[in-house]
Structures are given as structure tokens and as C-alpha cells.
Amino acid sequence: MTSKAVKDKLVPDRRFPEFEGAWIVDRIDDVGRVIRGASPRPKGDPRFYNGPVPRLMVQDVTRDGKWVTPSIDSLTEEGAKLSRLCPAGTLTIVCSGTVGIVSFLAVDACIHDGFLVVVDITEDKIRKDFLYHLLSTLRDQFEKGATHGGVFTNLTTNGVKEFTFLFPPIPEQRKIADFLTAVDEKIEQLTRKHALLEDYKKGVMQQIFTQAIRFKDDHGNHFPDWEEKKLGELTSWASGGTPSKDEAFFWEGDIPWMSAATMHERYYSDSPLKITEEGVKSGSKMAIKGTLLLLVRGSMLWNRIPVGITTRDVAFNQDVKALAPKNNISAEFLLQWFIASENILLHKVVGTGIGAGKLDTDEMKRLALLLPHPEEQAEIANFLSAIDRKIERVATQITETQTFKRGLLQQMFV
């Protein structure tokens, strides 16, 4: 397997100033013992499965990150005897599917055959926390060295054992690991803050739309009672379309063209695909600034309801409906109503569950909602939008810190 050790350079691009000298070249198998997990057979046998012993799954790793508490699957004590029971603190590597993801067990748990673990690490030679960061930088090389056949990608035990890498003496390892751990802790803090803000918003929305929380006017008086309306009464609906892909002059313009692939945010102003005015006339439609765009067909609908507001005039395709608010209806209020009602709307998605889901337009128009006075709509929209902005700022901080860490990993390791 090819590794970073084949490089001529034996020192990293970025280094703490108090350290010098070439890094040490060695194999993973020389600093620890690499073993593969195991799974009881047959799968799902009640003698072995659904017991008290946690069993690590890839979904646990992608959910928790560095320190993982398995919660998706479990084994009985008999099943654990046929698996690989590892203590908390064990370093694990995903070796099947999305290979190369590294993590630590936060609790004692069983490891199945989709994982490798590094045990008996010689800690007077290499620190476990440093090895975690080092292995994290090798994910692309693990992927290249894996076997690719059929549906699955597999990283072999022998392949990892023979993998060579470079590392510095213990004092420099400690400095690097402590620094990167501080960055990890910052990411974890921001992630917790993001989750708390989202939970707070969900709770507040529930209280607002059940009217447990009401806003008052500038004189401290309650606004009028909310009125029940149908969504179709409050909005004008339009369908989009797609110009011919064979006509280049339809696709060389500057008008953003929205589709399922571009509806990941709450506000829409741009798209990688842009069309011309002729493209709009030939089959697409325009939605003016302040229109709601709702995805009504697509595989995304099985997990979420993509909906947002246009912040400029855009075109859109046939999988999207444009909802233009009528009279004094606040587009921002309707957007927050859609967000608060997502679980209800998800139950209205129809289809096979394999292909694209679909929302029935006529049924959507018949949906009832309680509509506040226009001034209270504005108060609600402004309050919830302010929380959204806080959530977005934290999400941006998470992304920026993760990018910063990736840059550090590239520069601080050879």
C-alpha cells in the first residue's frame, strides 16, 4: 500500500518552533496490533442480538465523531462472545463501505467485521491521541489502498498493518495532539450550541403556532384572534418547467434556475444552472422576489420538505411550485409555518419509497392553518428569523473551524 512515507520530505510544512529533526518512519503494525471485528451468525438471531451489550455501527461513528457511544445495535452476552468486545478508549477504523473513518469508543462495546481496531499501542513510542489525528489524515490513502469490488469497498487487516507513516518524538506528538484536541473541543462546543439553538427554535415554534405564546402590539394589547384559512386561499400557485437541454442558447444566460439540487437553504438567489430569457419563454417559469418555492417531487421529500423564499427573480423547474402570497400575507410567516409543519407534511408524501416522493398540489392547497393579524405575522416572522440567523452563524463557525482543522492536518503531518 502506498503511504506518505514514500515521500522524500521527512518533516511537515508547519511545525512548532521548538522542534527540529526528521520524523520517524514506521509501520502501524510496529506501534500497535491491528485486529478485525467479528459478527455472530446468523444475523438477527435472538440468541445473539438485541441484548445489553452495545455494538458499534458506522452510523454511530458518523453521528458522534471522535468519541462514539453506540446506540443503534446491541448483542446479548452470548453474542458478545462471538464478536470482538473492546474497552472504552479503543481506537477504531471503518474498514468496509466508507473506509478510513477513525474514532474512539466512549464506552465498552463490541466491534463487528466492518471495523478494525488498533490495540496494544506502544505509548512510549506513539501517543494514542496523536495516532488518532495521524490516521485521520490518511483517509484518502486508505481509500486508495482498499479493495473495490461489487457494492462494497474494503480495507484489509494486512493492508493496514503494512501501512507506513511518519511521526515525531513524544514531546512533539504531545504538543500537536493537545493543539488539535483543543480545535476538536471548539468544534464540539459549537456543534452542541447549534443543536441547542435548533431545539430551542422547535420548542418556541410549537408554542407560537399553538398560540401558547402570543405577541402584543406597541400599546401592550393582544392582537385579534387568529383566523382559520386554507393554504390555497393565501397563495397563488404556479408550476415551473425545463427548457430543452439540446438548445445551448437556453442555458447561457444569467437567470438562476432552481431545482431539487439547489434547494438546500431557506433563501434562494443563485444556482449553478442559469438560463436565458428565451429559456424561460420556452418552458420554464419565473418567480419574483419574495415568492415561496416548494419542492413537490423528488427523493429529498422522504427526509425533509425543501421550501424557501426567493431573494431575487429566479426561474424554476417542473418539480417545484411557486407560491406567491396574496394580499397582506407575510412570506416570512408562511415560511416559518412550513418549517413548523414539516413533520405533518412529511406524512403527506406519497410514492414507492424507492423513487421520487410527491406532494399532491390539490391536497396541499386544502391544508388549513391559523392566520394571525398581519402585524402579529410580522412579529412572529421577525422573532423566528432572528433565531434562524443565530443558527446560521453558528453553522458557519462550525464549517470555518472544520476547514481550519483540515488545513492544519495537511500542514502539520507528513
Ordered list of secondary-structure elements with their pairings:
Elements (H helix, E strand, L loop, with lengths): L23 E4 H4 L1 E4 L12 E8 L1 H7 L2 E2 L4 E3 L1 H5 L2 E3 L4 E4 L7 E4 L3 E3 L3 E5 L8 H9 L2 H7 L1 E3 L2 E3 L2 H5 L2 E4 L2 H40 L17 E4 H4 E5 L15 E4 L8 E2 L5 E2 L1 H5 L3 E3 L4 E4 L1 E2 L8 E4 L3 E3 L3 E6 L5 H10 L1 H5 L10 E2 L2 H5 L2 E4 L2 H39 L2
Parallel strand pairs: 3-9, 4-8, 16-23, 17-22
Antiparallel strand pairs: 1-13, 2-10, 3-5, 6-9, 7-8, 7-10, 11-12, 14-26, 15-24, 16-18, 19-23, 20-22, 20-24, 21-25
Write a compact overview of the structure shown.
This protein has 414 residues and is an alpha+beta fold.
Write down how many β-strands occur, each being a DSSP E stretch of 2 or more residues.
26
Strand proportion, as a percent range, falls in 15-25%
Q: What does the radius of gyration come to?
A: 27 Å
The strands making up the biggest β-sheet line up spatially as: 2-10-7-8-4
Largest sheet: 5 strands, mixed
What do these coordinates show?
The protein is built from 13 helices and 26 strands. It has 414 residues and is of the alpha+beta class. A hairpin with a 2-residue loop joins strand 11 and strand 12. The strands form eight sheets. A five-stranded mixed sheet has the order 2-10-7-8-4, sandwiched between helices. 30% of the residues are buried. The chain is elongated, with a radius of gyration of 27 Å. The longest helix is centred in the middle third of the chain and has 40 residues. The N terminus is likely disordered.
